[in-house]
Design brief:
six-stranded mixed β-sheet, single chain, 8 helices, mainly beta
């Protein structure tokens, strides 16, 4: 089985008012063997000197494989000529193994200013599809590489912004001066390698998503390029949520671990962060804002998030211990309150939770609760029901989604977990992505033995989504493990990514 494969490459010499540049791009398909992996393009120009170009993750395909892309831009200067004709191969490092696609030892080649060459055995290839629509973008340009031997008469884009309830058709054009118009290049269209570029522009306006397929019509047949039958999709940013118990300043090398948390928030572009065991110095009950753990983490982010926090009780005999929400987007409303019977700040079972309503671009209002509840024998059932009732009161027709996140101090599959399941209101979003059969059994068909259906899980931290919310999860991951940023607490973090329905 081939774990890495070059899909197509581009080699363009661009002439602009700022100078002359050679631009090279490589699109590579990678099997998702592990989250931790590294992909390099090894290339050399006409000077014979080899270079290593690091590729970055581009998108995940419907079959679970990934596309990775590498780009470089080299200027023409008095000291350095352009690379010219390129010879290259790709190398994947993953799970302690190295995998190559080097054209069976011959390397791949792409001439200077030749445009695009597709190395797959396909008649039509959608080029450099990007799954994310930038905010404010009202049209989408789509390029397709078509084999000249097809003698294509028409290339059309079939597209929809409402999951095919309605659909539209946009015509593509094959212009001989395509590369001059697009990049100031004299590359030919079609090129001498038998590929021609057809371009269309889809007017998406302010839609959240667009799905599309490319139709190529020739005298003999009609060919579809539709991502293996799944269609291509581009959408605005997703909603990314993280929950993590910080362990109340009990970690060694604490500052480094706070920086690791901030790095993960930055790397995963997380929108909403729910934190528990957020500590700050007790200071006779008055607190010490400078030492607040959520504030410290926020200070390590390149752009400060909006922060809402409150404390519940004295923790570890020296801290104000509480919960917090960090949000990339402004709060429309914030609140906090005890859900426990006790409100005594010297009682560990006094449990206050915080909530915020956040207006997320394209999603609208999202209600978020960050909670650290007691163990089942110490008040979980009452505390959860109070939080659920509070969340229900705040969930109006205008609210896109309600999320209950945090350390619930109950094991997945336990009697207390079953209490949440049987409420028929909230669903475990990490389970939904990681173990879909178990999720369907527990939250769908209503299996009697929930613990057996879930199996050994071990989680006590959750991201629950209210049924009827207008979002669904499309990705989930456990963070702050030995393999992912290292341990930063006695808990791991849970990350779930949502898209708008």
């Amino acid at each position: 089985m081939k774990y890495v494969r070059i899909e197509y490459a581009e080699n363009i010499i661009s002439r602009t008012m700022q100078g002359i540049w050679q631009e090279m791009s490589y699109m590579v398909r990678v099997e998702n063997l592990s989250y931790q992996k590294n992909l390099e393009v090894h290339w050399r120009g006409e000077d014979g000197q080899w270079h290593q170009l690091e590729a970055g993750y581009h998108c995940t395909l419907p079959d679970g494989s990934e596309l990775w892309c590498a780009r470089t831009r080299r200027p023409l200067t008095p000291e350095h000529s352009l690379p010219g004709d390129i010879r290259f191969s790709v190398c994947l490092h993953c799970a302690g193994h190295t995998h190559w696609d080097n054209n069976h030892g011959l390397d791949y080649r792409i001439d200077a200013d030749s445009g695009v060459i597709v190395y797959r055995d396909v008649p039509v290839q959608n080029l450099f599809h990007h799954p994310v629509l930038q905010g404010g973008k009202v049209s989408l340009s789509i390029d397709a590489a078509v084999r000249s031997s097809l003698h294509a008469k028409n290339v059309r884009i079939h597209w929809s912004t409402d999951k095919w309830q309605t659909s539209h058709v946009t015509r593509c054009f094959n212009r001989t001066n395509h590369w001059d118009m697009a990049r100031g290049s004299v590359a030919r269209n079609p090129n001498r390698h038998g590929w021609e570029i057809w371009t269309g522009r889809v007017p998406i306006q302010h839609s959240y998503r667009v799905e599309y397929a490319i139709e190529c019509e020739s005298d003999k047949e009609t060919i579809w390029e539709n991502c293996g039958g799944a269609n291509y999709q581009a959408r605005r940013s997703t909603l990314r949520v993280l929950t993590l118990n910080l362990h109340c300043y009990q970690e060694s090398n604490q500052d480094y671990k706070f920086r690791q948390i901030a790095q993960a928030i930055q790397d995963f572009h997380i929108d909403l962060v729910c934190l528990q065991e957020v500590a700050e110095n007790w200071n006779d009950g008055h607190g010490d804002w400078a030492s607040n753990a959520a504030r410290v983490i926020n200070s390590y982010l390149p752009f400060q998030y909006h922060l809402h926090t409150d404390f519940s009780h004295l923790g570890f005999d020296r801290y104000r211990e509480g919960v917090a929400i960090l949000s990339k987007h402004e709060f429309s409303m914030t609140d906090s309150g005890y859900v426990s019977d006790s409100q005594d700040i010297y009682d560990i079972h006094a449990r206050r939770i915080v909530m915020a309503q956040v207006h997320v671009p394209y999603f609208g209002p999202v209600n978020l609760f960050s909670a650290h509840l007691s163990w089942p024998e110490d008040g979980f059932y009452t505390q959860f029901d109070r939080m659920r009732n509070w969340a229900d009161e705040r969930h109006g027709d205008n609210v896109t989604a309600t999320l209950l996140c945090g350390d619930f101090n109950i094991k997945a599959g336990s009697d207390a977990y079953c209490h949440i399941v049987r409420s028929s209101e909230y669903e475990d979003q990490y389970l939904k992505f990681i173990n879909r059969p178990a999720f369907e059994s527990v939250f769908g068909t209503g299996v009697a033995d929930i613990g057996k259906a879930i199996g050994h899980d071990g989680r006590i931290d959750y991201i629950f989504l209210k049924r009827g919310s207008r979002v669904h999860s499309l990705n989930a991951r456990e963070l702050f493990t030995k393999q992912s940023y290292g341990r930063v607490s006695d808990h791991t973090g849970y990350y779930v990514e949502f898209e708008l329905l």
